[in-house]
Amino acid sequence: MFIYLMIGYITLYLVVWSHEVGHAFFYYKYGCKSNPFNVTIPLYLAFSTPQPIDLEKRLI
Fold first, then answer.
1. Which residue pairs from 45-49 have beta carbons closer than 8 angstroms and sit at least 24 positions apart in sequence?
2. Over the stretch 5-48, which tens digit does the pLDDT of each residue have?
């Protein structure tokens, strides 16, 4: 039973991670982020973000 919980959690973590990388890709595309794979996802999965980004970057 424990192995199924671990597999489920790891799968969910990977889905959330890939979702945040999708957001970070567009920050990278427009020059606000240097590495799209550097995202913040806590182990409890809530409040995951594509941070850190350069909030001071201005697009013309």
1. 45/12, 45/13, 45/16, 48/16, 48/17, 48/19, 48/20, 49/20
2. 999 999 999 999 999 999 999 999 988 888 999 998 888 877 78
Residue type, 58: R
Q: Tokens 């999708």 map to which residue?
A: 22
Quote the tokens at residue 37.
């794979």
Label residues 23-36 b or e (16+ Cβ within 10 Å = b).
bbeebbeeebbeeb
| φ and ψ at residue 15, rounded to 5 degrees | -65, -45
Global pTM? 0.76
